[in-house]
């Protein structure tokens, strides 16, 4: 029931008009990247495939639909038997995308495919928004480790998805335990200000934490006075203190003074982690400071100013009355679309870097997914679900790991200007080409 | 497991240091409203109470925590028995809030309460972000009905929460079926462009829809040519056509011409609904156009530029070694907090409108929740969960209805300038007062 009512009413009307079974191709794409961004990142695919596999209408749902007269009884029967038996192809999770990149293609009868619109878009729009922002943060951190800690700044289930998306683009860990359990993302976290204030002194709090978690823990030193907090931390934990965390204040100057004090006290091996309202710009601004790792919250889980990716789910081709496939497209003033199945290929320049997203259209429009012309580029389409069966290697923890590896590989294909934080045009131009 | 690792490690360390059971008061507040907003809206409370009631660690979760050595075996035993047995008080769902309003207070032993931090904030931060934006849209619509249709632009579970939050502040319906089933929000929706394109002509599509859903349905007329779409819609559905929907184009001029054409064709009773990338400003700009209802998506579910409310969860008071309660507060440079339990009262000016959020501090700090001084104001605190038992009237569909009524009532207390869309200061000033 994570879907919009109009999907069910369309199924209802299509069953009645005899068009529900027409072979259809739906395509997911974004008309543009978030303003100023150089590239987008596809995320959520593995999570989506699991949700599609489980997408059903149970007795409670059917009873509610009947009670509320949402659809006819014929449609209720159809929904009771529903499971998606079509084929989904698209960009590998972790892949980059650009304006009009055909990220995902759903092939099935119309009714089967139209039911998935909201679920597909909810997952891809949110997860890709986080991944796109997170990938820039990873670049800005220049090799220093990043931890995701934004669970409290987004819906409680979106938090798990955000942790997963951030890990795919190179974050090292998350605070979110469910993301650890469901998706194998490494988890981290030690203590908050509340723990210090629970105790009768900062020293007692630090002692309790070190006894429970060992000297290699991270002590939060900015509850009362940072300078004194650092001294207390070193006195309690000794030279083996893992790290100190700073969650407030003017980090650029604070970090330098904390580093000096730690070194003076003989704790040159103790790291400094900062977690104060960071985004990609703040991370970049700290490049010259002796920060060892970053924790990022709000800006990460809200896509750093762009909380939705603007992806849409459009019918691009469907069976005509004679059984052949007909490309279709919205034609009125704005939001016009390109009909027909697309075959995307990433082409490379003389320097070996990605230069063009060539989207071929107009070739074979049957459901066989004809390979796009080679042209020396990289075919961007992989099978994700075939006849209702999800590709196992895309699922669960293994899928997350595969997406993470894929992202590293494809990021290396981008030209250098793709990694500038300043607003600019997409790093790779998209060109629609007729086959 | 919808929680952060540091909450469990704090419990672990507190159990070891003997402080886990210290009576504690945690407070939820926002240091500021989203920039330029005149008021905030508390949402998510009823949903949160249900999640807190069900917050447990099952066998699978405990096994994962043990495997990953997150906490000691003593802590695992404690978690296995966990259920929240404390008391939660706070602002009624649908209530308005201002900077530093003490929105929610959690009273329990430290370990019991600290475990809820992430869940409490995830729910309140997201739901309140949506409600705050949605309430402005309702004002901007000046009595015209609004429908929430942003499910595809946020995480699939956040979508349900967003539909619920929008309904609480006055939206009339949602596209999201699960929000209908779980929370009793009226659902709506008829067809997308895909349905028109599935058929061999617009006329066939309209005919199929009218046969299935009746002439009172809403026909989407902008797939090909709006003028022709309107004529076809009227020809197919007749004078009883319920509404036409416009999802693209320059709405201000388009709506006027569609209204004229409908009237010329004798369909003066056919309504016009618009759904094209609306936010509160676009809705206000359409005030003079003959629009009958609005559908809002992206900007609603992403808080119209402010996707997280910035609420925090802070320990403000806890039991000392002698058993008395001790106010506590973070004291370092930035993010300083005010210790001690708060007693908020809304005070009214000579014109009868809300003028001041008086937050009394320093009185009784035990767990009895002493009433704040009357002073002619409205006490803002209601019981939400007492000794682990949620207030039934706050839950489920009834809770949503109560929150919706409450929002209407309290909104009427605000001065007129609170409803200006332009950026400005909070409509009600917050003042911390010593008791």
UniProtKB/TrEMBL annotation, chains A, B:
Family, per entry: Belongs to the NAPRTase family.
What exactly does this protein do? Catalyzes the first step in the biosynthesis of NAD from nicotinic acid, the ATP-dependent synthesis of beta-nicotinate D-ribonucleotide from nicotinate and 5-phospho-D-ribose 1-phosphate.
In this protein, which residues make up the domain named Nicotinate phosphoribosyltransferase N-terminal? 1-125
- Does Transferase show up as a keyword for this record? yes
What this protein is called in its record is Nicotinate phosphoribosyltransferase
Q: What modifications follow translation?
A: Transiently phosphorylated on a His residue during the reaction cycle. Phosphorylation strongly increases the affinity for substrates and increases the rate of nicotinate D-ribonucleotide production. Dephosphorylation regenerates the low-affinity form of the enzyme, leading to product release.
**NCBIfam families (UniProt xref):** NAPRTase_put, PRK09243.1-5, PRK12484.1
| Pfam families in alphabetical order | NAPRTase_N
Q: Which GO terms describe its molecular function?
A: glycosyltransferase activity
Q: Transit peptide among the record's keywords?
A: no
Q: Which domain of life is it from?
A: Bacteria
Q: Where is the signal peptide?
A: none
Pathway where this protein functions = Cofactor biosynthesis; NAD(+) biosynthesis; nicotinate D-ribonucleotide from nicotinate: step 1/1
Q: Which InterPro entries match?
A: Aldolase_TIM, NAPRTase_N, Nic_PRibTrfase-Fam, Nic_PRibTrfase_pncB, Nicotinate_pribotase-like_C
Q: Give the EC number(s) listed in the UniProt record.
A: 6.3.4.21
Task: Give the reactions, separated by semicolons, that this protein catalyses.
Answer: 5-phospho-alpha-D-ribose 1-diphosphate + nicotinate + ATP + H2O = nicotinate beta-D-ribonucleotide + ADP + phosphate + diphosphate
Identify which top EC class this enzyme belongs to: ligase
User: Which keywords, in A-to-Z order, does the entry hold?
Assistant: Glycosyltransferase, Ligase, Phosphoprotein, Pyridine nucleotide biosynthesis, Transferase
Q: Please name the source species.
A: Herbiconiux moechotypicola
């Amino acid at each position: 029931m994570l879907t919009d009512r109009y999907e069910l009413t369309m199924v209802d009307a299509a069953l009645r008009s005899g068009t529900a079974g027409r072979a259809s191709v739906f395509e997911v794409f974004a008309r543009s990247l978030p303003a100023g961004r150089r590239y987008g990142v596809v995320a959520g695919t593995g999570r989506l495939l699991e949700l599609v596999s489980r997408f059903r209408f149970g007795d409670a749902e059917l009873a509610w639909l009947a009670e509320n007269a949402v659809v006819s009884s014929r449609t209720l029967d159809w929904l009771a038997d529903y499971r998606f038996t079509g084929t989904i192809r698209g960009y590998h999770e972790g892949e980059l995308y650009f304006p009009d990149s055909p990220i995902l293609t759903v092939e099935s009868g119309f009714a089967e495919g139209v039911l998935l619109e909201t679920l597909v878009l909810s997952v891809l729009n949110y997860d890709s928004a986080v991944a796109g922002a997170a990938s820039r943060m990873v670049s800005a951190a220049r090799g220093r480790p990043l931890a995701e800690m934004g669970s409290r700044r987004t819906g409680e289930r979106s938090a798990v998805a955000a942790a997963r998306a951030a890990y795919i683009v190179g974050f090292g860990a998350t605070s979110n335990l469910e993301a650890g359990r469901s998706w194998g993302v490494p988890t981290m976290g030690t203590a908050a200000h509340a723990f210090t204030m629970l105790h009768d002194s900062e020293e007692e709090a630090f002692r309790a934490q070190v006894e429970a978690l060992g000297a290699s823990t991270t002590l939060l030193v900015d509850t009362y006075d940072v300078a004194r907090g650092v001294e207390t931390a070193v006195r309690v934990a000794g030279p083996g203190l893992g790290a100190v965390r700073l969650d407030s204040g003017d980090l650029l100057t604070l970090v330098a003074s904390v580093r000096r004090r730690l070194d003076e006290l003989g704790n040159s091996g103790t790291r400094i982690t900062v977690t104060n309202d960071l985004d990609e710009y703040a991370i970049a601004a700290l490049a010259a400071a002796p920060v060892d790792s970053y924790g990022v919250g709000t800006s990460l889980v809200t896509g750093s100013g762009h909380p939705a990716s603007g992806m849409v789910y459009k019918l691009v081709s469907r069976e005509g009355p004679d059984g052949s496939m007909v490309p279709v497209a919205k034609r009125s003033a704005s939001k016009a679309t390109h009909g027909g199945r697309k075959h995307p290929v990433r082409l490379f320049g003389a320097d070996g870097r990605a230069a063009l997203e060539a989207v071929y259209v107009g070739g074979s429009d049957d459901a066989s997914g004809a390979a796009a012309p080679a042209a020396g580029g990289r075919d961007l389409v992989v099978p994700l679900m075939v006849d209702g069966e999800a590709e196992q290697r895309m699922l669960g923890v293994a899928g997350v790991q595969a997406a993470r590896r894929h992202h590293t590989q494809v990021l290396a294909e981008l030209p250098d200007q793709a990694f500038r934080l300043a607003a600019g045009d997409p790093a790779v131009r998209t060109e629609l080409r007729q086959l």
